[in-house]
Amino acid sequence: MMKKIISLTFTMLMTVVVWGQGTVEADTLSAKDSVSIGSHTEFSAAKLLEDNVTKAQGDSAYMRNDYASAIQIYESLLKKGEASEIYYNLGNSYYKADDIAKAILNYERALLLQPGNADIRANLEIARSKTIDKVASVPDIFFVAWTKSLINCLSVDVWAKLGIVFFILLLVSFSLFFFSKQVVWKKSGFIAGVIFLVFVILSNIFASEQKNELMNRNKAIILSPSVTVRSTPSESGTSLFVLHEGHKIEIKDNSMREWKEIRLEDGKVGWVPTSALEII
Fold first, then answer.
1. N or C: which end of the chain has fewer CB within 10 A?
2. What whole-number distance in Å separates Cα of residue 208 and Cα of residue 191?
């Protein structure tokens, strides 16, 4: 009876793994790929080796303090595909060019692809400290905040790879349980199997959450120097409050082309023109 239950669990687990591994490609970061640019860290992407000359020109422009040229080069690279290290370098260039809003936008995009990167997060916080709006967010309860922090400590690809590793270890544990003749090994295999089963399920759920965050982007950055948030999607709507460039908002209603309903960290809602913001 026990073996039938485990076999059924194994079949269900296979379904979970296949579901969780359907993740989008996100560039991973390795320490050996990092070099220093001024007071910031810059990363070299293996997937962009064929564009190394063009990227090197961007790096060179940054080091010469020619930030306008660096911005142009990095943005042209991003047209060929997203890469967290290019977004990061682009954010650095905008920051040096005193365009704080676009620096924040690109740091946020880099962080979306590499949520566990401490350098990106540190530069983002520095850029945020230079914005005008200071809105106190509604704190999550401890468990929710801890879970979000855990999910965001690794990227979607890393969680997916961990899911595969835990699944292989689960197979090894099941092999011990089924084929070992010693009771102690059977018990060890069963206990380890239960633990790895939990890890497989959690890593695939976390990978799925990261994938959903990448595919359904509902956060944006205010790029206009200032914008009046209104009660209705019209210039005649009642003025509620004013937001300034660099502020991060959540898009609550994305159904209209010219206007977006937004929500702030403190729960306030209103409508702003689409032209005043850009999706992360």
1. N
2. 26
pLDDT of residue 71: 93
CB 170 within 8 A of CB 13: yes
Q: Comparing C-alpha atoms, which of 247, 244, 277, 235 is closest to residue 260?
A: 277
Pick from 43, 49, 39, 48: nearest CA to 30: 43
Nearest-angstrom CA–CA distance, 264 and 146: 21
Pick from 280, 230, 238, 239: nearest CA to 258: 230
- How remote is the C-alpha of 44 from its chain's centroid? 19
Question: Would you call 262 helix, strand, or coil by DSSP?
Answer: strand
Query: By the 8 A CB rule, do 154 and 111 touch?
Result: no
Distance from C-alpha of 129 to C-alpha of 120, rounded to nearest angstrom: 14
Over residues 102-128, the pLDDT tens digits come to 999 999 999 999 888 889 999 999 999
78 and 54 in contact (C-beta within 8 Å)?
Answer: no
pLDDT band at 27 (very low <50, low <70, confident <90, very high): very low
CB contact set of 142 (below 8 Å; sequence gap of 6+): none
Q: Across the chain, what does the average pLDDT equal?
A: 80
